[in-house]
Amino acid sequence: MEPDEFLADDPLRPVGVVAFDFDGTLTVRDSFTDFLSWNAGALPWLRGLVALTPAAVRYLANRDRGRLKGAVARQFLAGTPLHDLEARARAYAEARSRSLLRPDALNSWRYWRSRGATLVIVTASPESLVAPFARGLGADHLLGTRLAVDADGRLTGDLDGANCRGPEKVRRLRETFGEDVRLAAAYGDTAGDRDMLAIAVHAGFREFGERP
After folding, report:
1. How far is Cα 31 from Cα 100, in angstroms, rounded to an integer?
2. Which structural domain, as residue segments, surrounds residue 56?
3. pLDDT at 6
4. What is the dihedral of CA 143, 207, 190, 16, to 10 degrees?
5. pLDDT score, position 206
6. What does the pLDDT read at residue 66?
7. For residue 137, what pLDDT is reported?
8. Which residues, other chains included, contact 205 with Cβ-Cβ below 8 Å and sequence gap of 6+?
9. Do 11 and 90 contact (CB within 8 A), yes or no?
10. What are the phi and psi torsion angles at 121 (to 5°)?
11. Dist. CA 15–CA 192, nearest whole Å
12. What is the CA radius of gyration of the chain?
């Protein structure tokens, strides 16, 4: 069902919640790794990747994306004050947004906004990194992976809760909008989005392909 079909019977009725995955759906590439390489610089990024070789090998055996993401966060972000990360995330969004966001995905976002939808970004990337993009788009909610912070406000390198992927996306949506949440539309591009798409009237899988 296309979005226009969904609303054709009564274009004035409340639309409800529309959820967008971020990486690969609203964007052309993974924002977490892009941010980390941009933030670290070429040589430290390469050194960090080499240091992560054991974690990558373990991932090949266990396929646990959350554990791999935690290893990446520890390698590149552990000890960073949260306010510093948030400042760098804002700078990254300013530097990269024009080359990162898909024009056709933005058109869909604006379409649903014009219909009065509640717009939510649901992403496996860290909330603190996606937050500047969410604010710029005027998202009503941002649900993402959370990075743990210690008592001094520094990142520990661990995740605070589960990696926001697969069933966790639906759990977070239900936590926010209620157990019986039914999405007017949802958009995603990987198997990690299929659980979210399954609770949507309009399930847009790999619907966007334009590049900036």
Report:
1. 8
2. 3-205
3. 52
4. 30
5. 97
6. 82
7. 98
8. 187, 188, 189, 193, 194, 197
9. no
10. -95, 125
11. 25
12. 18
For 22, 26, 153, 164, 204, the CA distances from 187, given in Å and listed in that order, are 9, 9, 34, 15, 5
Q: What is the mean pLDDT of each run of 10 residues along the chain (212 residues)?
A: 50 80 97 96 94 90 86 94 97 96 98 96 97 98 97 94 96 97 97 97 97 94
Residues 6+ apart with CB under 8 A from 64: 58
CB 93 within 8 A of CB 84: no
Kindly report the backbone phi and psi dihedral angles of residue 191, in degrees, each rounded to the nearest multiple of 5, phi listed first.
-60, -25
Q: What is the pLDDT of residue 1?
A: 41
The total number of residues shown for the chain amounts to 212
Query: Domain of 53: which CATH number?
Result: 3.40.50.1000
Element (H, E) at 92: helix 82-100
Is residue 123 within a helix (H) or strand (E), and if so which, with residue range?
strand 118-126
Contact 156, 150 (CB under 8 A): yes
Q: How many domains does the chain have?
A: 1
pTM here is: 0.91
- For residues 91 and 38, what is the distance between their CA atoms, to the nearest angstrom? 10
For residues 69 and 163, give the distance between their C-alpha atoms in angstroms, rounded to a whole number: 8
With respect to residue 62, please indicate whether it lies within any of the assigned structural domains: yes
